[in-house]
Every structure is written in C-alpha cells, then in structure tokens.
Design a protein that fits this description.
A hairpin with a 2-residue loop joins strand 3 and strand 4. Helix 1 runs antiparallel to helix 2. By secondary structure, the chain is an alpha+beta fold. The two termini are 30 Å apart. It has a four-stranded antiparallel sheet with strand order 1-2-3-4. The protein has a three-stranded antiparallel sheet with strand order 5-6-7. Helices cover 43% and strands 19% of the residues. It has a domain of 90 residues. It is elongated, with a radius of gyration of 22 Å.
Length: 196
Amino acid sequence: MKNAQPTTVVAKPGQRHPLFLQQRLNEQLFWPSLILIIICIGLLVWNPPAFQQYRLHLMVMLVATGFIFILTNFYRLRAYAQCRPEALRLQLPFFHLDIPYRLIRTTRLSELQHMFPLDSLRWTQRAFAEPILARTVVVVELESLPVPRSSLRLWMSPLMLPPDVIGLVLPARDWLNFRTELDEYVASLRRMPHLP
C-alpha cells in the first residue's frame, strides 16, 4: 500500500494588495504639491522683477515640493500586503515585515471608525483619517508581534496598530479578496505536519 502524499503548501506568492492609507496620503498632498510646482515653475520662467530676489527661494521650494510629490507617489506604489508561501509580507515604503502564519490567530473584518473613533484621534490625525474611517479593513489578530510594538510605531501609521488586540490592521483596497486569500494560505499551512 502506497503512503499518502502529504498536503502541499501554496507554493506561489499571492497577489499584491495595495494599502489605501498610502493612497490617502497621496491624495491629500497631490493637488497642493502640483499647484505649488506649477506656481514655482511659472514664476521662475516668467521672472517678474518683483520676484527676482526670491529666485533661490523659489528653486528650493520647487525642489522640496517636487521631492514630496515624487515621494508620496512612491509611497502609494510601494505599500502593499502579500501572501507568500511561508509568511504574510507587509511592505511599506521603507520597511517590510514578514508575519509567519503560525502567529496568526484569526482574521476578521472591521471598519476603521469602530476601532479608531474620530474623537479618540489627535487633531493632527483627524483631517487625514476622517474621509477613510468608514472603509473596511482586515484585522489580523496575532499570538504575538514579530517585532516590538515600539519598532512598528516608527514605520507604521497608528491606524495600523489596533488598540484592543495584539495584531495589525491591514487597510487593503480589495479587502474581500485579500482576506479570502490570507485565510486560504493560513489554512493550507495549518494542514501541514510542521508549521514554519
């Protein structure tokens, strides 16, 4: 009698799911940055006598605003969550975190406004968060964080760290497909005799 073949793990990486917090940051800064860039270029090209003494200031403003414009677009493109064969990858612009599936207790759906009521946010966060508080997010509850919470605070928005559980709030734009995919990977790994 032949031995039963072991259950195989999902071998290919899943889809990259963009995170809408970075999209919101891009939307918030896109038009002000673009308008400032256009004004600076216009004044530098037109070169009216009243502004000639401020040419250096205009050039510095143009470079700084252009840098912000490019950086927020970079943030938007480089921030995603992705299921990989042995861990969930959370990629942020200057930081990535691999979360082993063995640490995942459960996943659930919630809305940002249920986790972070508007009156609980600092005034500096309210203008950013208010338009997206009704959005659905995937809450990933963990046995423990793979790195200290203090380290995560350096790289993540406070809206990605749930106040009531150990875990992460993942604001994927396509939250339904992302959660389905993540649950499939977790279930596949749990069927294995030894979890990575």
